[in-house]
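Notebook, p. 212. Picked up where the previous page left off. The plan for this session was modest: take the two constructs that came back from the sequencing core last week, fold each one, and keep the raw output in the notebook itself so nobody has to go hunting through shared drives later. Recording the first one now, exactly as returned: residue sequence, then the structure token string.
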Amino acid sequence: MNPRARLLLGALLAVLLLLPAFASNYVISVATLILYFAFTGQAWNVMMGFAGQLSLGHSLYVGVGAYVAAAMFVNLGIGPWLGLWVAILVCMALGAAIGFLAFRFGISGVYFALLTIAFAEFTRVGFDHLQWTGGSGGLFLKVAQREQMDLLNFRGPPAMYYYAILALAAGALALCAWLLRSRAGYYWQAIRENEEAAQALGINTFRYKMFAVLISSAMTAVSGVFFAFYYNNLFPEQIFHISRSIEIILGPIIGGIGTLFGPVLGAFVLTVLADGITELLALFGVEVPGVKQVFYGVVLLGVVMFLPNGIWPSLAKKIGVGK
């Protein structure tokens, strides 16, 4: 990372750290949503952007991570910090199962993507009928948000959740930067560009693809736990739906797949503009069902047509920073 990039990153971090001091709760909630999608986008980017494995079912890990931690909290009284590790382990086991089935039997490309969708849909149907987690009626956390911070149970005001997701997003960025420059990162990029050539060079492609799946699923499980304790309610139809997976992947695609800052920029563009359009329509008393989805489609079409590598690579070149 060159000096200019470090300076810009430091300035951005300073602004984000000071934001709750002068921003309203609404602005904080929008910023929290941006950082949430930046974090989940980084998690998906490890699998697709770095290792070239297209997943369209990442809602599986969000949903399972959320339900495991929330159900342990509601039904067993086990706090989110222990539930977090259980959620990570369960999601990694699911990721390992999907990866093993796919990579051991040569399932790749669009067929691998369909496999990830199928697992997410099977799991949604299962949770629809699982009464221990509320079934289709939903699971509701018993402890509501309150103004006093309760870190043990992860309860508190909006600023607490904002700083938590800021720490997660910053940690994900640092982790991905390290991974991209590690041996695994170079092997992933070789696999992404040409898997057969990578095998010919002696790279154990099965091992390193599994490694990418495990890291991605673990990171996404963390976002699921945050989702559960931030929103306090879970419904299988909502959290496992393919639209949840699409929301996760749009940020990296629009910002720049395989880049470090692409998922962050993509999350910012999509969230701010989509929310702005919704608020603008509300100001004029107009309600358009599905307006966000239409907006996502228009932005995606524009990026594919005019910036096929995403917004960040072009922007980074203009301001003289690395990817």
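Okay, moving on. Second construct, recorded in the same format:
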Amino acid sequence: MEIKLHNIHKRFGSNEVLCGVDFQLQAGEIHALMGENGAGKSTLMNVLTGVHQADQGQILIDGVPTNYSSAQAAENNGITFIHQELNIWPNLSILDNLFVGKEPCNCLGFLQQSKMRQLALAKCSEIGIELPLDKLAGECSVGQQQMAEIVKALMTNAQVIIMDEPTAALTERESAKLFMVMRELKSRKVAVVYISHRMEEIFANCDRVTVMRDGVTVSTRLIGETNFNLLVREMVGRELNDRFPLRSAKLGSEVLRLDKLSQAGKFEDISFKVHQGEILGIAGLMGAGRSEIMRTISGLEPASSGQIYLHNQALKIKTPLQAIQNGIGFITENRRDEGLVLDFSISDNISLASTAHLSKYGIINSQRESEFVADLAQRLAVKMSSAQLAVKQLSGGNQQKVVIAKWVGIKPQLLIMDEPTRGVDVGAKREIYQLMNDLTSQGVAIIMVSSELPEVLGMSDRVVVIHEGKVAGELDRANANQEKIMALATGGE
């Protein structure tokens, strides 16, 4: 299947999101679609798959003008969109998820379970993967859920699969498996549109790359005809001289100390400290217990033993409110479910953790709140037409900026950032890194959990590596490198 989108326009109210975009996809290619958050990438794919109707422009499928009325119509014709937020029913088995809405039944209307299993196993075998078909989807890893979405797409004989940030929540092993599957799909002439901000993945796995900026197409090139700096310049419209800003940390007094902190079955005897003005990187494989440690510090999960010290004072944090009252902010890795109230406005989300400071006698001072929100939105460069817009209408990267703005607003002494740049474009990442530098220059202590080793190395003053719920080692900035971190993360020395 070959696809051509020509001069595509799409407006939402007064906001023109697509301003004449061109995009071409050939059969059997892996085509990267890149751009800053809000550039229009997902909107373009939603127009292709019938979620939105273009205001102007033409879609050609194998040379035939085509407009799908819905995502279901696109899927029925071989085009499937696997969104960043997976469409999984957690209380159903993987097998049932594969056939939702397409269950094979006999003449009496009964499910043909054996046929479902046979079809699922055959499709898994085709692309060389195994899935726990009888396990509840909610109990499976994100990688297994992602593979289930791909198998579900192939059940419809998909000829085009669109993947939006597919590796954002995957382990390195799961990501490697995904890339293997993508290459197998390519060999079967299935085309993949790969939306991602991870440069290393783009250069290692894609054939061509199209860059969008501010709702227009900037370029389409063979992957061998471009490079990191050129892609960045095309995405952000300017040079980014350094991927990471220079750090000159001036450490102050101890802010946080953990002494043999444990949570039964998740982590054990965790001890480390972080100082004023310091960025402490927390590395390790997914599932090692990194996030669980952070959730315990922030009062979301209880410790079974051990002690937390804040400014050398023993502290019992049993709720997130207690953490906030003690100057601890927590940017969760799961922004949609835990970091945002999607139906609330951008303004409400930013001010949510600071209502005590913005109100008197329980009544919020609206002018004070507006000034507070405007200042933080400007500092974080949140792209929005109005602060009263529902936060769910923002791109994923701008939603992440809103989450960060909310916690910066409490003026924390300690800011915990769990995967702070997940799903964020390279320009916005640079802005977040600069904000981290600004905060630490003001004496804020930062703990940053990240699965991106270049980010850990580029921003951390020290790195603590977690392996299977225990501290595997600690490295200072001068001695840390990817090989040492991975050795510790996998149980080596």
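Notes on construct two before I forget. The mean pLDDT is 89.
Flagging for discussion at group meeting.
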